[in-house]
Design goal:
alpha+beta, 3-stranded antiparallel β-sheet, about 45% helix
Length: about 140
């Protein structure tokens, strides 16, 4: 896992450098701040968790095929949308798949929706493992909070 950790860290830092050179990073505009953040990020080993798939490679491919060719929420599940909120249908698996309706404010709906969006220039395995955590981490130094 140590090699995978170093490869992921290297790719992630390279993408950060590319984003900064294109002016896409917020909060790290000056060289000193950016290099301080990079130095801090490489001082520690990154934890990458991976284990053998339970069902073998065929099972992993079936799972990824379903995941990569679906959208986060279909139009038929949307009940209503207004300037403040979004209402949608969902299955309550804890209560025998009972259909329910949830209403969220627009920002929270978008946050949850984007957790399932694959960022450009990333692969599905990296995204499914790390991107939702990074998105939900409100103190991430490059986020525009």
């Amino acid at each position: 896992m140590r090699i995978l950790s170093r490869v992921f860290r290297g790719k992630f830092i390279d993408l950060l450098k590319q984003a900064r050179s294109r002016g896409k990073l917020i909060g790290a505009e000056d060289d000193r701040t950016f290099h301080r953040l990079l130095d801090a990020s490489v001082k520690h080993d990154w934890v990458v968790y991976a284990r053998r798939p339970f069902g073998g490679p065929e099972q992993v491919l079936k799972y990824l095929a379903r995941y990569t060719h679906r959208i986060a929420i279909s139009n038929r599940r949307l009940v209503s949308v207004d300037d403040q909120s979004v209402s949608f249908r969902w299955k309550d698996y804890a209560h025998h798949n009972r259909p329910r309706t949830m209403t969220l404010d627009g920002a929270e709906f978008l946050r949850r929706f984007l957790i399932h969006a694959v960022p450009r220039a990333s692969c599905a395995s990296v995204t499914s493992a790390c991107w939702p955590t990074v998105c939900a981490h409100r103190t991430w130094p490059f986020a525009d909070n």
